Amino acid sequence: MKIAGSYSLTLRLALVFAVLAFVSLAGLGVALYQELEEQLTRRDDIQLVSRIDQLRTILNDSNTLELIKNKPALFQNMLGTREALLTIGAPGQPPLLVVNPGNLALPSVPAVPVEHVMALNDVQHLPSINGVPFSAVAASIDSGDLGNLQVLIGKLMSERTAMLANYRLSVYGLASLAAIVLALVGCLLVYRGLLPLRRLAKHAHGIGVGNLNERLASAGAPRELQPMIEAFNAMLDRLARGFAQLSQVSTDMAHELRTPINNLLGETQVALQQPRSIDAYQQLLASNVEELERLTRMLDNMLFLARTDPASALSQRQELDAADEMQRIADYFEGLAADVGMCIEARGRGVIWAEPMLLRRALANLCANAIKYGAADSTVQVEAFAEADGSYLRVRNQGATIPAEHLSRLFERFYRVDQSRERSAQSNGLGLSIVATIMQLHHGRYRVSSDNGQTCFELFFPARN
Ligand SMILES: Nc1ncnc2c1ncn2[C@@H]1O[C@H](COP(=O)(O)OP(=O)(O)O)[C@@H](O)[C@H]1O
Ligand SMILES: [Mg+2]
Questions:
Q1: pLDDT in tens, 363-397
Q2: Which ligand is nearest to the CA of 368?
Q3: Tens-digit pLDDT profile for residues 270-281
Q4: Any residues with Cβ below 6 Å from ligand 1, and which?
Q5: So what's the architecture of 308-462 in CATH?
Q6: What is the DSSP-derived secondary structure letter of residue 102?
Q7: Where are the alpha helices (DSSP H) in 210-277?
Q8: Given this structure, which CATH class describes domain 9-168?
Q9: Model pTM?
Q10: Where are the alpha helices (DSSP H) in 349-464?
């Protein structure tokens, strides 16, 4: 599948490889080329200088000059190539000898005086002809009877030009070839390097709801991919946990809803089988209302558990005065407690770092339980105190000791010690699981202990840091 705006790593790397190979090889080639060109120019210049030196020596002899006049062809042969140019003559007079097979225009080059020893920088590099450099050197010669003569020799550097052109071609050709080869190698490397990624993608494709417990294998994958694999697997862990939780919730819910709905259905069906008295209908409806209220409460609680957003709960934490909170909850439950002859004793010290609504909800659930399950005419103690690491909240009541085997399961969803209370409109076994969820949201702790007719629920809210 092509994703708009995405680019190919392979293509990029291949291009980078190619450009780098070309630039570095061509750069090296150009540097070597310049060096070579310098060397060749020097060699040519040395040749010109030594030739004119030779001419200076032989022309010193008047016999040789006779020879030039009579047999110029000798000199033409001596120069050999079509690119060479030679003139000999007195200044301001027609030349004695001109050898110019290539019909080159005669350059005006200042002559090196007689007493000067020829040097390399006496060679003049003239404007090139059709791209071929033209070098020339001239010297004065003292030729005895013929007086002062001037010799000019020049040469069109065709050989050098051809050689350098060849060299240039090779450099660019080889650099291009290297670029292509490296681009291909780059493609291959990326393709091979990405193989483990493709394997992982294929594996990830196969992971779904049915096999959420499967994990990507990190064996054989390169080290660079390990963090990604770990992160992916950690994500799968979280998803699997969340999914397990969700399926548990829906299973629990279906299970818990079945009983009240069956009751409603059964009772209503029985009532409809024959005409009943108004009283009987009223009784049925009252019982139905009770059942429906229970359902509503249960759904509210389920929704609360499902909807609470951890991030916003944490961000809305406040420093709450423990004494205030304890007093508030005691006031709220005072009436309810008085109905069963109980009283509430509230104490608080320090501050609690918590989201107020959630804290109150947890406390209310614990107090409601204490009143519901506590012994009549006893006292419920609600206390909170702050320590260095956080605040502890305790709700204590007198009543039947909870058997130890139940203690660890009390905070499970829908768990009730006394299943016969199942039909009670007040009990759905969700109160403590809500407390547990609230404590998890706060990164806190919760526990329960029960012995000698005293039950104590303890919550711990970590301090602000
Ligand atoms: N203070 C308490 N004393 C004795 N038993 C308790 C107390 N609080 C909770 N329980 C037991 O734990 C169970 C789960 O409590 P909870 O989750 O609040 O559900 P519910 O109150 O709806 O039954 C209760 O059914 C009860 O058996
Ligand atoms: Mg409860």
A1: 999 999 999 999 999 999 999 999 999 999 999 99
A2: 2
A3: 999 999 999 999
A4: 365, 369-370, 373, 397, 399, 402, 410, 415-418, 427-433, 455
A5: 2-Layer Sandwich (3.30)
A6: T
A7: 226-272
A8: alpha beta
A9: 0.56
A10: 356-373, 404-407, 431-441
